[in-house]
Amino acid sequence: MTHEKKTIGIFGGGQLGMLLAEAAKNIGFETNIYCPDHESPAFKFATNQTIAEYNDKQILVQFIKSVDYITIEFENIPQNTINFIAKSGKLFPSSDAIKISQDRLMEKDFCVENHIATNEYTDVVNISDLSHWNYDKKSVIKTRQLGYDGKGQRVINTKSEAEQAFKEFGNRPCILEEFVDFAIEVSTISARDTHGNTFTYPPSENIHKNHILNTSCVPASIDQKTENTLYEISKKMIKNLNYIGVLAIEFFVLKDNSILVNEIAPRVHNSGHWTLDGADISQFEQHIRAISQLKILNPKLIFKTKMLNLIGDDVNIWKDKNSSKNEKIYIYGKTETKMGRKMGHVNFLEEFKY
């Protein structure tokens, strides 16, 4: 590379941070991982590590000075911390985009304001707000913030079930939304750089098990018209968010082929792990390029790919195996195996037959 060696600061030390740090290293950047966990997987590829709480202002000041660009590997970093980092002008994506993605209500409102279809919803600030909803059909109540992998959400059929869930969620602000009986669930991984270039990878078809992503398959089993619509929506969203970096968008495709946006993630995403082997440029390299003021590339799909998540004890089946031509194994090196914890993934590759 022609640029002088610069440092990318990454908030979060999980597998996404690890794969970002590896991508950054491969294209000539140094990295500094900021994470409170002493045994973070991301430290494996990081040039430097900052072990501190996310609200330690004194350490944050030092960290900001030590890096040229800052990004995140997960969105649930305290908003005060995000705002503080943003003042440096080094944070990508922007604090506004992260703020929207941290709050399910703001996500839905963004869709409505930008004429992007999503399911019906209502804001629930207190228990009396639950009276304004029609319970004739199945619904889902979710906490507005700090929800992922099925945490902080419940399918409900009656007002009393909604009230019970709201209390169990600690009376925190929630969103009540229509349950979507979708045909398939898909996601797109899009990137936008500081030069205004955008790119969206082919949509992946996703299957969840116990609310956690189980498999992502590319190409998805959708027609060309649906695929083109997904590209259009993705481009519109990443542009209207004035977003820099990789953005993941999860969609529901209904039986009549109509499309609803489910939610967004302001970062590289589990459903984009297939790009490590199924495309010639991964989502991780795209993100590093975008946030460091390089131009993103136009990756090509080179294999049909099925990504399998290794959750909890599933990792034991694969951890002593070696990758092969058609099976690429990624073990994250987490010190403790827990039920529901993402421990690794496998990409199964298949040649295209023309």
Q: Structural class of the helices, strands and pairings?
A: alpha+beta
Name of the CATH architecture of the largest domain: 2-Layer Sandwich
Number of strands: 17
**Which residues sit in consecutive blocks of at least 5 with pLDDT less than 50?**
none
> How many structural units, i.e. domains?
3
How large, in whole angstroms, is the Cα Rg?
20 Å
Strand fraction:
25-35%
Main beta-sheet annotation: 9 strands, antiparallel
What is the molecular shape? globular
* N-end to C-end Cα span: 36 Å
CATH evolutionary superfamily of the largest domain: ATP-grasp fold, B domain
Order of helices and strands: EHEEHEHHHEEEHEEEEEHEEHHEHEE
Helix percent reads 25-40%
Count of separate DSSP helical elements = 10
CATH names the topology of the largest domain as D-amino Acid Aminotransferase, Chain A, domain 1
Task: Output the CATH class name of the largest domain.
Answer: Alpha Beta
